[in-house]
Design brief:
By secondary structure, this protein is α/β, with parallel strands linked by helices. The chain has 15 helices and 18 strands. The chain has an 11-stranded mixed sheet, with helices on both faces. The chain has a 3-stranded mixed sheet with strand order 10-14-13. The protein is globular. It binds 2-acetamido-2-deoxy-beta-D-glucopyranose (NAG) (8 copies).
């Protein structure tokens, strides 16, 4: 018995030490009072392995009350390394053009441990050796297995309150993973201490999304007042509606869809070929018809978004060594699965169904937040979903204030531990656009405090 315990301990700490990150250029981790681990978590399903980065909190590490936050970026097919290096991590590229990392004063690890996962396994540095085509249900199964693998390697965090957070397509990943956790806990007597979820500009009803995008664009004068969107209001899956979308993308070509008042980075040739541009937008505006395989092959990068700094950084051999990732892999923001195509099938009706199921349990805090300058998953789309869910308003729409009592945005409280909040002037990547407000909302929510 004693022998087994010792062996287990050696094994556990062996893995942690192997994955310990000592240096993250230009930062020497010995200068900080928290550790970062990076490496792979493997599951036997199709021999997949998932790259993870675990960032310890700046709070006391022995305190089991410090929350653990699992962060997922969206896509589907985009890497959570942008969450780590651009949004909520301790070291970020503060400005689009920065070539070196800076310390992030508003890092979410000031309030929680952070686990970034490159999922599904075709994304970023993760391995999908059998080239499987992903779907929502199976991704949720995989994410649960990876989380269990994390706990078996880092058992000291098993008791900490767990929160799931992320943005965009993670609006599908997160509720589905939460549902898997609930089902697992029902069988195993609550071993995963899930407390809540925070979803930023998250997808809910993909079928409705194109309508919201068009209404939002009209409301913000990105389309001419005479622009007719009635074909989509009539039938969102019709070819006429598809044409309306294409026309809208051509008209709004140099507007950053993720941050309509922000800068749009582009290369001249990107905009010349209208058909290319439409294909490009189609992948990123998340237009899915039922059961259509979404093949992501992002030669053009994300429309209007500049991420050369992260791409250069993560493709640097020395950085790859520090992060203990497969050096033969070229990292892309959105896969391009290791120079192949990334395939994902969405199941649009599933997300709303699962969200309702989670709300019915009345067990988990759910925060839906939206940067109000995003046209990809506009705040009105989240509002539309809220109207369809069976919940009641318990606190009327009201402003909240941050940064010397300036307007932060608006919030509304609902039954079943649900809250909606907007972040004024922020785009799709809220924590990148407004670090102060995002951290404030995050910290208050973790602590169950009002804002
Ligand atoms: C980081 O700092 C430690 C302690 O000062 C030092 O021993 C180590 O060589 C440094 N690492 C690098 C890569 O500079
Ligand atoms: C997984 O990898 C192992 C070891 O390389 C191999 O023996 C096994 O056949 C693989 N499984 C599948 C499903 O490919
Ligand atoms: C770690 O350092 C930060 C920043 O200097 C400080 O706020 C925090 O209290 C420290 N944490 C611990 C556990 O000492
Ligand atoms: C997966 O795709 C890669 C690249 O196209 C190919 O080399 C490999 O053989 C494929 N693996 C399987 C199991 O089909
Ligand atoms: C998702 O993929 C799994 C594994 O390939 C398959 O068994 C399942 O039927 C798929 N689900 C849907 C909704 O397509
Ligand atoms: C999703 O949106 C479509 C299109 O507007 C609508 O027909 C459907 O009822 C919505 N589903 C839910 C669950 O709200
Ligand atoms: C919407 O358009 C699609 C594609 O043309 C068609 O299959 C479907 O029946 C239409 N739905 C309605 C309600 O007209
Ligand atoms: C998080 O919120 C608590 C309570 O509102 C506050 O005391 C604490 O200073 C906040 N943490 C940080 C890092 O700002």
């Amino acid at each position: 018995m004693i022998l087994i315990l010792i062996l287990t301990a050696v094994n556990i700490y062996g893995l942690q030490i192997e994955d310990l990150v000592t240096y993250l250029p230009p930062f020497n981790m010995s200068d900080f009072n928290f550790s970062i681990y990076s490496g792979y978590l493997s599951i036997t399903d199709s021999n997949q392995s998932f790259h993870y980065v675990f960032v310890q909190s700046q709070l006391n590490n022995l305190d089991n009350n410090v929350p653990l936050v699992l962060w997922l970026n969206g896509g589907p097919g985009c890497s959570s390394m942008i969450g780590f290096l651009q949004e909520i991590g301790p070291f970020v590229f503060l400005n689009d053009d920065d070539e070196t990392l800076s310390y992030n004063e508003y890092s979410w690890n000031r309030a929680a441990h952070l686990l970034f996962l490159e999922s599904p396994s075709g994304v970023g540095f993760s391995h999908n050796p059998l080239n499987i085509t992903f779907n929502d249900s199976q991704t949720a199964d995989h994410n649960l297995k990876v989380l269990q693998e994390f706990y078996s390697n880092y058992p000291e965090y098993q008791k900490n309150p767990l929160w799931l957070a992320g943005e965009s397509y993670a609006g599908a990943y997160i509720p589905l993973l939460a549902q898997r956790i609930k089902k697992f806990n029902d069988l195993e007597v609550a071993v995963i201490n899930l407390q809540g979820m925070m979803i930023g500009n998250g997808v809910t009803n993909l079928t409705h999304l194109p309508i919201s995008q068009l209404i939002y664009q009209k409301q913000h004068q990105l389309l001419p007042p005479t622009f007719d969107i009635s074909a989509c209001e009539k039938n969102v899956t019709s070819e006429d509606c598809e044409d309306v979308n294409y026309d809208a993308w051509i008209i709004t070509k140099r507007i950053n869809p993720y941050d309509i008042y922000g800068y749009c980075y582009y290369e001249e040739n990107e905009l010349e070929d209208e058909e290319e541009w439409i294909l490009h937008m189609k992948q990123f505006m998340m237009i899915h018809n039922d059961n259509i395989v979404k093949v992501t092959n992002h030669d053009l990068g994300v429309p209007c978004v500049q991420i050369d700094n992260i791409e250069n950084y993560l493709n640097n051999q020395q950085v790859k060594q520090y992060l203990h990732v497969d050096e033969s892999i070229q990292w892309f923001l959105c896969s391009k699965q290791h120079n192949k195509q990334f395939k994902y099938v969405s199941d649009p009706p599933l997300v709303m169904k699962v969200l309702q199921e989670l709300l019915n349990y009345n067990l988990y805090n759910i925060l839906l937040y939206n940067g109000d300058a995003d046209s990809v998953v506009p705040w009105i789309d989240t509002m539309q979903a809220l109207q369809k869910l069976q919940v009641t308003i318990t606190e009327e729409w009201r402003p909240y204030y941050v940064k010397n009592n300036q307007l932060g945005g608006y919030t509304q409280g609902y039954s079943n531990k649900l809250r909606f909040v907007t972040v004024r002037g922020a785009g799709h990547m809220v924590p990148q656009n407004d670090r102060i407000t995002a951290f404030y909302l995050f910290n208050q929510t973790l602590l169950g405090q009002a804002f």
